[in-house]
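Standup notes, protein team

Yesterday: finished cleaning the Lophotis ruficrista set.
Today: WDR60 protein structure.
Blockers: none.

Input for WDR60 protein:
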Amino acid sequence: SDGSIRLHQMTSEYPLMQWNDSTNGQPVIALQWALTRPAVFFVLDASSNVYIWDLLENDLLPVAKQTVPSESVVTMALLGEPEKTNGLLGIALAKESGQIDIQYVKKKWALP
């Protein structure tokens, strides 16, 4: 609820990494690991901002932030086929109106 993100290992109750205020204090609505690239995850906050984290590129801050204009996004899901190496990774954004917006992610964050 405060915008912090923690990375845990299953064998410990203490986080390996913790990023406080990673969404400028906005609650995290959804977080999902990329299906095609293990070091990348996506975060959706309550202000309809999508943050892309690539831990191999920068483990302190997100590498990209995209604001979804016009109306609030209530959830997200990632689309892709981990067994294929074509680098296709999509993000489905469900808006408050019921509309679904699907966008493709740049290959640099999708390739294995």
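Follow-up from PR in the comments: Residues 3 and 23 are 5 Å apart (CA to CA).
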